[in-house]
Amino acid sequence: MTDEIAISHLQRRKIEGRVLIPFIEACREKFGEGPTHELVIAAIRAHAATDGARWADMFGADIEGLRRVAEELWAGGGGMELEVVGQTADRLDFNVTRCRYAEFYQELGLADLGSLIHCSRDHAMVEGFNDGLELTRSQTIMAGGSCCDFRFRRKA
Predict the structure, then answer these.
(1) What CATH number does the domain containing 103 carry?
(2) Beta bridge partners of 92
(3) 61 belongs to a structural domain
(4) Which residue, 41, 44, 84, 131, has most beta carbons within 10 Å?
(5) Is 122 a domain residue?
(6) Nearest CA to 122 among 76, 70, 78?
(7) Distance of CA 136 to the CA centre of its chain
(8) How many Cβ atoms from other residues are within 10 Å of residue 155's Cβ?
(9) Would you state the pLDDT for residue 6?
């Protein structure tokens, strides 16, 4: 039996954001933008790779498991709306057409921190999930794009 309260992935990220935002702002004041950015990216990437490995164990480290991560975890609880535009055994393509993670940071006027805290974790998550897969993405809603275009491929 666990004493953890079940919350959605979106709620977890909002809680993390509310803790990280003032910490990052304090670090920027004390250490400057560059060192703070490097530190945050390193910490977020390490955490994301660990998440990826855990999710691979839960859902399977293949394309179908990755789809389940996107649909059940990331989009679960209304975190995002996504449209799968293609899937084979070697690739998964989907567009996020609404991102409540981005809306959270944009409402705070902190989309730059949202990109740093949230969007920057996706590539490292894939490495932890299955280092035989890769992610390309040309735009995000957080950065002002019309969608987030996730394109996962098996490496050649």
Answers:
(1) 3.30.1380.20
(2) 87, 152
(3) yes
(4) 44
(5) yes
(6) 70
(7) 13
(8) 9
(9) 82
User: How far apart (Å, rounded) are the C-alpha atoms in residues 9 and 76?
Assistant: 7
- Written as six digits, the tokens of 119 are 């969007």
- On whether residue 15 sits in a domain, the answer given is yes
Average pLDDT of adjacent 10-residue blocks, the chain of 156 residues = 77 90 94 95 96 98 98 93 97 98 91 90 97 98 97 96
What Rg value do the Cα atoms of the chain yield, rounded?
Answer: 16
Could you give the CA distance from residue 68 to residue 12 in angstroms, rounded to a whole number?
18
Asked whether residue 4 is domain-assigned, the answer is no
What phi and psi, each to the nearest 5 degrees, are found at residue 84?
A: -75, 125
Question: Which residues partner with 149 through β-bridges?
Answer: 95
d(C-alpha 88, C-alpha 94), whole Å: 12
Domain that holds residue 58: 9-154
The number of domains in the chain is: 1
